[in-house]
Amino acid sequence: MSGRPLNILLVEDNPDHAELVRRSLAHFQFHNLLHHVEDGEQALDFIFGRASYADRLRFPAPDLVLLDLRLPRMDGLEVLRHVKSHPTLHTTPVVVLTTSDAERDVAMAYEFHANSFVTKPVDHQRLFQLIKDLEIYWLACNENPPPADART
Amino acid sequence: MLLNPVGIQKRTVTAILGTALLVFAFFCVGLVVYRQSLMPSRAQQYLTPYAEIIAAAVDAGNKDRALQQILNSFKSNPQILRADVVRPDGTTLATYPAGNQPLEPVSQIRPDGVYLTAGTAELVRSFSAGNSRPGHLYIRMTLAIMKQRERQWLIDLSLGIVLILGSSALLQFVLLRRWVLSPLAQLAAIAASAGKQGDYSRRMPAHDVDELGQLGMNFNALLAAVEHRETALRQLANFQRAILSDAAYAIVSTDQSGCITSFNPAAEKLFGWKAEELIGKATPEMMHVPEKTGRRAGFLSAKPGEAGAPVFEAFAADARRGLQREVEWTFVRKDGTEFPGLLSVTTLRDEQGELFGFLGMARDITEHKQAGESLRESRRLYEDLVSSLPMGVYRVSARVEGDVLEYVSDQFCEVTGLTRETALEDESRVRAIIHPEDRPAFDRANVVAFERLAHFLWEGRATVRGQTRWLHIESHPAQLPGRAPFWTGVIYDVTDRHDVEEAFHHQHSLLEGALQATADGILAVSGEGRINSYNRQFLELWRVPRGILDAHDLAGLAEYILQQLSNPAAMRARVRLFNDKSKADTFDTLEFTDGRVYERFSRPQVVDGRVVGRVWSFRDVTARHWAVASLRESEHKFKTLFESANDAILIMNESVFLDCNQMSEVIYGAPREKIIGESPVNFSPKRQADGQLSEEKAGGKIRAALAGTPQFFEWIHARGDGTLFNAEVSLNRLELRGKLVIQAIVRDITERKVAEAARHDAEQLYRTLVNTSPDGISLLDVAGRMLYSSPKAMELFYGSAEADLAPEQNALDLVSAQDRPRAAELLRGALGEKSPLNARLLMRRLDGHEFVGEINGRLLRDRLGVPWGILIVSRDVTERQRQEDELKSKNTELERFTYTVSHDLKSPLITIKGFAGVLLADAAAGRTARLEEDLKRIVLAADKMSELLNGLLELSRIGRMVNPPAVVSMTEIARDVSELLAGPIEQRQAVVTVQPGLPDAYGDAQRLQEVLQNLVENALKFSAPGQAPEIEIGFKTLGNQTAYFVRDYGRGIDARFQESIFGLFNKLDPHLEGTGIGLALVRRIVEFHGGAIWVESAGLGKGATFYFTLPAHRALSAPPVTNLEI
Q1: Interface of B with A (CB under 8 A)
Q2: B323-362 tens-digit pLDDT
Q3: Closest to A51 in 3D by CA, of A69, A66, A39
Q4: Does pTM top 0.80 for this prediction?
Q5: A120: which chain B residues are within 8 Å (Cβ-Cβ)?
Q6: Among B583, B539, B575, B537, which residue's Cα sits nearest to residue B557?
Q7: Is B280 helix (H, G, I), strand (E, B) or coil?
Q8: Pair A80, A113: CB distance under 8 Å
Q9: What are the chain B neighbours of A103 within 8 Å (beta carbons)?
Q10: How far apart are CA B343 and CA B317, in angstroms?
């Protein structure tokens, strides 16, 4: 684990949910930077470092993407597909974080090579714990892929 | 030998050689002498130079020593023996070789010159007086070498000369030989052979034209002439000899005095004397018989030597006079026997005509005399014979003036009825008696005989003493020298014979005709084993080669015949073919290997109770035999068939049964005796199935059959016990033993009928099933053609139950184009029984109407398992399909709905509970910073939930159309919507235009209003920022439908989202107000009306147009759905 902070991209259209995630993450020890986008287009722009997020210094390539499925305009699965078919950035770990637990969604997510699928629990305690566990796992346990070239 | 060579060649050689030698000798001698004479001069010539040198030296006044030296130099010349320079006083000035004894002074000095001795030559030279040193020089040389050289030279020359001479001699010899010697030798040889051996055949070969050549040619001519003469002479001699020796006459020649000079072999034979006994010793007198010489005087005794001049003289005188005659004489042989002979004498004269002898020829005429005698004798016999013959004898000669009868016997006259005088007088009288019809033959025979000098034969009729008799005239020619040819022949009456002959011929020809005309082969064999006769048929029947018959080879014939039989051994044992000498008639049948069958009959030929032969007759009965056999066979077959047939076979005439087989008893349930004699009507009920009287109907059928038309029909028969049964009857006309009958075949078809009835019932049932089934039932053949379709199927496929199935209607043509490939595939699968034919296909009727058909198919196989068709059951499931689709889509929607709902509801819950927790934690920790914010979030989330729930409720309500459908004025609805949204319109300063002439729609006005309202609201919401929204409500015609639209010139919609925006809770912009169900609601309503809704937008910032269609009439069917699957 290097000393630099790990960048997390949260793709969530619901601002409240985004806020909850943010607050959860703020509590925790690992140094991380949370970025938030509200739709699929922006998510891709951010991950690929293009359009408004072309500045890689300000918007580094995320080490982890938390992706909601229900997004306006571009669907979360669509985003997933795009990311996972990117020549270099497909290695980016993408965790689907969504309210849905429909088997179809799970299947499709994995079909598009999601690294993990997590359903948001309604219970807030469990939500907090989940975020925490997520963080520990993905930022501590998991060996992230080596940083890819930030260029899309 | 050499000195006296024989032969010109040798002589020539000798001459040439001798000459050469002579020349050579002379030459040599001459040469030697010559050379010898030259010797002194040569010596001198040789020595002179030396002398000169010395002389010169002397003259020059050389010292003595010098001279000596010069002399010493002579050493080099071995020929020089001695050289001395002598002073006048005799002292030696110088000498060579040194040490010589001084020469003896000579008394007289010899004058200068060269003096030769035997082997030396000496030169004497005196020096001149004027010389200071006068003196003499003596040089002596040996001549040996010179002589030697001379000899050598001579020898060489000699050799050369020898060579030249030799060659010349050779050349001479060769030339001479060629030109002279050889021809001469040849000539000599030829002459020798001609002279010594008498061989005149050799000739000189052609040569040059020089004298020798000429000689040769002349010699050849000479030889040729000689040869010719020799040959002629020889021939003459041979001729003479031949004459003399071979002559049949005795030839005796004498000289003038009568002394015998030659006596030929014939004479030897005739007189018994040998030639040498008489030649030169005797005269012919001894061969004469004295008694006979009547006018000739004297006779000679047997003793030789004595001249019997008178007799001989008599002859000779005649001869001399040139009289030649032959006189009969009596001769006497050596042994004394006498014999008569003919004698003729001629003279022999030489070339000059001088008489030098006589030639006598004699002939023995004993036989001649005898012959004359016997001739007379035979003549007498002949006369006797002729007169005693029963036939007439005649002689006719052919003369220029005509034929002349020279002689006719008494019998001749008897036979012909002519008198001798008449016949002899005129030959034509004989001809006259001949029957006119037979005359031409007579004349012809005559002509032929006379022309060819041939046998004359004629037989014919003649009128003799008023009767017609058959005469036979036959004669043979003869020709005596000097006489005209004549024919000697016989004539006799053959009338009786003729009659007999004619009768015989008549019989014979009759017999022959019969023999040849008969179809049987006849062979007559004599008792001795000879084949008397056979006819052509016999040959043909047996195919016997003529050779066997001609050879009378009975054994062979028998064998030949037996070989052809199928069982020769048996025949052989039974019959003594052709050897049968019994008196019995025999009869047999012969069978051949090749299937022929002959009948053999034989009968003995009996003459006077004795068997003299046997006559065999053979007849080819193959056809008959096999005909009989096959007839029997077919009879047998028929019988078998008749008896064993499974059907009843009966023979009947026009009214009753004549015969029946076993099966008939079974079928009719009555014994045979009861059937025969009965009419078939008795075995039938009164009436038939069609109501006709059995009697009438049967009668008609029977008559028709008898007339020749085969009948085949069904009949109701009655059994013996009265029970009825169905029968199949076939009637055929037959000829049986010359009579026309009917063969009836009756088959009990009761069972079949029952089966048929059952089948008929089943068929009826089946038909009913098919016709009443709600499903269409069709039958296809294996090619997919429709063979049959039930009325329901016709209704399905053709639109009308009464429609007729088009011929060759292919089932696939009834399937819509898009489903046809799949249909074809299904058919194939069904035919191959790989897959069951169960499918829903979009069908298309001929009138264009399409419907969804559910097709179940099944392959039909016949009894043998061969596929023969496909049974198709079909039904119209369009409605059901639509319902299923609808249900499916409803289910799908419901699923999506549930999913969406759960998700969207879950979302605010998470917010609420999440922030509640946060608040609790903060409250417990005393953190109040975000209290208000967090609470707001919770409240907002709760509101969201409520909103969502309301929207959902409303959406679910759409499932039930509240108002019944009616005609709706869209213009009015547009106006209402504008009024309703007046507030927001004004607020945004939007302009809403409504296209005039909006067509009416058919549906729920309320709902339609909601549609427009939602769309306009959206248009207002998604206006371009900063711009006053422009909204158009209008319509356009799409095909046969009307599409209403709401257009705005606002933000537009990205192509990616033009479909998803109609999804539930899908919001383009989450920040904008709205539940996200508006468009979903709108779509729901439009689709419920049977229409469709879509959006067209050029892209972001380019506005959007929402189109929706509303069918004029509410249709229950869903829009075409593809990809139907069960």
Answers
A1: 899, 902-904, 906-911, 913-918, 937, 940-941, 1054, 1056-1057, 1060, 1066-1070
A2: 666 777 778 888 888 888 888 888 888 888 888 888 888 8
A3: A39
A4: no
A5: 906, 910
A6: B539
A7: coil
A8: yes
A9: none
A10: 15
